[in-house]
Write a structure and sequence with these properties.
The chain is α/β, with parallel strands linked by helices. It contains 10 helices and 14 strands.
């Protein structure tokens, strides 16, 4: 296991969720709360950085109070209820993606419009509801997504097994299209990613790359990985993430993030 230099003055720890911080059952490990408490006790900000909705992440980490959160794959950064950064998609691009997804019924595609107020869906079937529920806690079912009156920061498409590449290819729109999971394809403005969001947060907090540790596993974490000196790819990470990271952490199924952070905290206490 690679570790963080105990002499490093880490001030910010950003963690992806699925495949990284969450365990093999998709849950926050119970042991995580004590580690986060120790980080915060040393003045180190713990920041979830996920494709998940802000409302979902806020609920998952409610016991921590007002913390910084990077949500929707970096299209919004919040600190408590205060917005630090967001990136809005033009209405014509939203309409184009809606049309493209509607044309891919054979892929069992379902679209989530991620608005600043809530998430919006047209589908209400049980399978789709089950697919989106871990990621979107605040959801409004509407008859027609083209009639939604909200600013959209990201669009997420859920598809059947083995269909993400086909869905990504079908989104022939002038947007950044990212495969963010085995069943998920995200569309957002070009140049928007978790790395940009992390940079905005680092600037807000006055934290440098040398004072930042990042953990990720999937290509949508790539730019965030590059924004920190102490960048960790999980042992189960996608090859492009493993190649970009400076260090490797044990797999999420082994609570790898916690192992690395405990080692750092223990090393700090022995200095």
């Amino acid at each position: 296991m690679h570790t963080i230099d105990p002499n490093a003055q880490i001030k910010l720890v950003a963690v992806d969720m699925d495949g990284t911080f969450l365990d093999g059952e998709g849950q926050i490990p119970e042991a995580a709360w004590a580690v986060i408490d120790e980080l915060q006790g040393q003045g180190i900000s713990f920041v979830p950085a996920s494709g998940r909705q802000f409302a979902t992440l806020r609920e998952q980490f409610a016991q921590l109070g007002e913390i910084a959160i990077i949500a929707e794959n970096g299209t919004v950064v919040m600190h408590g209820e205060n917005e630090i950064y967001s990136n809005i998609i033009a209405g014509e691009q939203v309409t184009a993606v809606i049309a493209a997804v509607r044309a891919q019924r054979q892929l069992n595609a379902g679209l989530v419009l991620c608005g600043r107020r809530t998430a919006y869906v047209e589908r209400s079937d049980a399978d789709f509801a089950a697919a989106i529920s871990p990621y979107y806690r605040a959801v409004e079912i509407v008859e027609d997504l083209t009639q939604v009156q909200d600013e959209i920061i990201k669009m997420a498409v859920n598809v059947g097994t083995g269909a993400v590449q086909n869905m990504a290819a079908a989104l022939d729109v002038p947007l950044q299209v990212v495969i963010s999971g085995s069943h998920w394809v995200d569309a957002m403005n070009h140049g928007v990613h978790k790395g940009l969001a992390l940079n905005a947060l680092q600037e807000k907090l006055g934290v440098s790359a040398d004072e930042t540790a990042v953990f990720g596993d999937y290509p949508n974490d790539l730019e965030m990985i590059k924004a920190a000196t102490y960048s960790f790819a999980m042992a189960n990470a996608h090859p492009v993430v493993a190649a970009a990271a400076n260090f490797t952490a044990p797999a999420n199924t082994e609570h790898g993030v916690l192992q690395v952070l405990r080692a750092y905290l223990q090393g700090r206490s022995e200095l």
